[in-house]
Amino acid sequence: MKICAAADLHFPRQGRDWCAELARRMCGSGADVLVLAGDIATGKEDAYRALLGLFEGFAGPKLFVPGNHDLWGEADDRDTPQRYRGQLKEIVERYGFHYLPGAPLEH
User: For the chain, is the Cβ count within 10 Å smaller at the N or the C terminus?
Assistant: First the structure.
């Protein structure tokens, strides 16, 4: 099994073009599964929408694990437990990602 993973993107701080190129390469990697593992965006929902949308072209399972900046970054809502259990899960699932803290992936 080939796994393609990235972490600490802190989108959009790394730059939109840089992240778009990374996503393009990951989607075209031929990997069986894609993992975004923490600190992927600044914490605001529009940053997640913009970044996660870049990975639409990946054909296999897409997995997400939050990092501390996903929970505490620049999010408008500072309710960390609610963000961990609910908000992030809803956001990433909207873009076809499986939220690993919610349940293991059975494939």
Answer: N
